[in-house]
Amino acid sequence: MNILTFHFSKQLRWHSYNSINDIIRRYNHASNKKYSTSSTIKSNKFPDYKIIYMFPYAMCPYIFNKFKRNYTITAGALIPVTASLQMLDFMSSMENLSFTACNCLLVLMLHTIGFTCNNLVGTIYVKDKDDSENQNVIISYINYWGKRIDLRTTVDDIIPFTENFMNTSNSLYKILKIKSCKQTLKVYTKYGKVTEEASFSNIFG
Known about the structure:
205 residues; alpha+beta; 3-stranded antiparallel beta sheet; elongated; transmembrane helix; membrane
């Protein structure tokens, strides 16, 4: 029935709206944070590390990937619900098919559009006062489903940008590969902020 379909759509929009608002309230302090103007920015999360790169818009892909995850779960959970309603003659087969097809199409669009937000690097930390050649590095990135991952690695484990031929034709972001990590990361050098030019160049090329 059209009324029932409208009710499901309304509930889905309400759930997504509340989820996004909750994330914005919890992480709103990140957008209002004022960074130090000194050459070295210390990390509050990792006191022994300094920040050499940050992406100031990291909250946007975080929210998008969280919304993508929640919508995918909700759309999948609605399939048996609408199938049961059809069996009970509360929905026609055409209404069920249309509702499911629309949800699947929206899910496909979210996953396609979200390609540029997947495995996006938000912050890169380097061990402060570490004079060894193989410095300790922490790369914080947002994974496919919007979860923050703090990847601990070393300089020797990082493949420089110049060794990846795909970076020569991509002006939007650089592809970052770690030998010990199977994920391919994205570093938005065009819109990101490099706070330590020398350290960043020595590590990533």
